[in-house]
Design a protein that fits this description.
By secondary structure, this protein is of the alpha+beta class. The chain has 22 helices and 8 strands. Residues 421-447 have low confidence and may be disordered.
């Protein structure tokens, strides 16, 4: 049972990344439009102000309709095959639910009367794509996305006999879903108010527990990274009412991320909402891990420092610039797990300090994203210098604490390995030598995508062992049939900085280049 639950969570975490990957792009575009719409930057009366408003109006519907975005993205992410059809069925299913739920509320006399949609705030009902329905926020899309995917995986290849053949395969999926969706439309009308109370209670606990809640949030965001389940920690706070609610210009926004962006485009707001406390978890990406890298270099054996430098500089730069931490975190995660616990605790502590001192900055990613979001907002509204000041202290603290612990407990961090262990990432050459020794296969030619993909597929146990392939910001996420035949050394030989096994779910860490790796693997498997 435990394995099934963990496997299910892994699958959902992998799927939720599909829509989440696009949302930072939306945010960056809105940040850019806020620059164009700021008279202090472009000049009073500039035509660019209207250009900025026009661009923002085209992007905002994505963030105000996240339910359908998550529904389609999750269904596509969980679908094992025919992903395009799964996405279309998810769209049809979402609309079907809206119509059915609205009609049920009418038939039972539960529709709340209003003259302005804002009057529905707090009533348990809302308007979605013109339909007045039970207010489930993004959770509606998440739930329907999972339901659609499960039915799709079961029936997408089922043929019907004779004249009914036309309605088989993916058409059958939607046919099966219609009665399920209508039942859910009725059931959620009665059940969801209780679920909503539980969600509000959880959010209230995090908010009312003050520093303890922030610490738990920050700690789990880091601690769960090896499992890939950290997406399940921050996503509800960023995109649902668990992360707060705020009305800006007559429109109510749910979730810390949406609230921040709404305020960003409204220059009349003088100080951003406290919900920004859920956006502070990127401090360690910009500052803390740089301090950790310096500690690794400081404590390394003299003869290994030059080699270690070549490994740490790009890994630390990746974390600092774009907020992808796995390349450096995986250099110590498995060799010194005690440091990982300390790392997670320090991150939570510094998030608490940042919040207590009044930072309202958006600090989710690397320094590029940080500057893009916070500079246009201004110092007075986000108090971003507080975030930077605390971050510099965090850098020094990480350096001091990691240096002390590494020396005190003689931890085998990078550069401190036994003399016979070389400090490096495995290369394609290593993999070639291993393959030649074990199976006599032809050497893999470096620099070619097809050869890289072939090496990855081979290390994953071959084509027949691979069920699905996805990716997130930094990891290739694969569902395999038999995890026992996956060759971790072979995967590291393709340039991966880490391999994580969770049952049949395999995560291979490639960092920022993961999109290119995913494309190469997809093309190879399709060939």
């Amino acid at each position: 049972m435990k394995d099934k639950v963990v496997n299910g969570m892994q699958i959902f975490a992998r799927a939720i990344v599909v829509p989440v990957l696009f949302l930072p792009i939306v945010g960056l575009i809105l940040a850019f439009t806020s620059i164009l719409g700021n008279p202090m930057i472009v000049g009073e009366g500039s035509s660019l102000i209207n250009v900025g408003k026009f661009m923002a109006s085209g992007v905002w519907p994505i963030l105000t309709n996240l339910g359908i975005v998550f529904c389609v993205g999750i269904a596509m992410g969980i679908a094992k095959e025919k992903k395009a059809e799964a996405a279309l069925i998810a769209l049809l299913s979402y609309l079907t639910f809206l119509g059915a739920n609205n009609e049920w509320l009418k038939l039972t006399g539960k529709l709340i009367k209003y003259t302005n949609p804002s009057e529905l705030q707090g009533t348990g009902q809302t308007i979605v794509l013109g339909f007045q329905i039970i207010d489930m926020g993004v959770f509606l899309g998440m739930i329907l996305g999972v339901v659609v995917a499960l039915v799709h995986n079961k029936f997408c290849n089922k043929e019907l006999p004779g004249a009914l053949a036309l309605y088989g395969n993916t058409k059958l999926v939607y046919i099966v879903l219609v009665p399920i969706l209508t039942v859910l439309a009725v059931v959620f009308s009665y059940v969801w108010p209780f679920a909503a109370s539980g969600i509000r209670a959880t959010a209230d606990f995090i908010n009312l527990s003050g520093s303890i809640g922030v610490f738990i949030y920050g700690f789990l965001n880091r601690f769960l990274i090896p499992t890939g389940l950290h997406h399940l920690v921050y996503s509800p706070f960023l995109y649902s009412n668990m992360g707060g609610e705020l009305t800006v210009n007559g429109q109510t926004y749910l979730g810390a991320y949406n609230i921040f962006l709404a305020q960003l485009t409204d220059p009349s707001i003088k100080l951003f909402d406290p919900s920004a406390k859920f956006l502070q978890y990127g401090m360690v990406k910009v500052f803390g891990l740089v301090g950790a890298a310096l500690a690794f270099y400081k404590t390394a054996k003299p003869e290994k420092k030059n080699t270690l430098k070549a490994l740490l500089i790009p890994a630390a730069a990746t974390s600092f610039l774009v907020g992808i931490t796995e390349p450096i975190e995986f250099t110590f995660l498995f060799v010194a797990p005690f440091l990982w616990v300390v790392h997670s605790a320090l991150d939570g502590i510094f998030e608490v300090i940042s919040v207590l001192l009044g930072s309202r900055a958006n600090g989710m990613g690397g320094i590029i994203e940080f500057l893009t979001f916070n500079l246009p907002a201004g110092i007075g509204r986000t108090r971003w210098p507080i975030f930077v000041g605390i971050g510099l202290i965090q850098l020094a603290t990480y350096y001091a604490v990691f240096t002390f612990l590494i020396k005190k407990f003689n931890l085998k961090t990078p550069g401190r390995e036994d003399d016979e262990v070389e400090v490096k990432l495995f290369t394609k050459k290593d993999y070639k030598e291993k393959m030649s020794q074990t199976s006599g296969e032809t050497a893999i030619a470096a620099g070619k995508d097809t050869d890289l993909a072939a090496a990855i597929v081979e290390a994953l146990g071959g084509r027949r062992n691979i069920e699905t392939v996805d990716n997130c910001f930094s990891r290739l996420r694969i569902k395999v049939t038999d995890a026992g035949i996956v060759d971790e050394l072979g995967l590291k030989g393709t340039g991966a900085s880490g391999v994580i096994k969770n049952g049949e779910n395999i995560q291979v860490v490639y960092g920022p280049k993961v999109n290119g790796v995913r494309n190469a693997v997809d093309k190879y498997l399709a060939g």
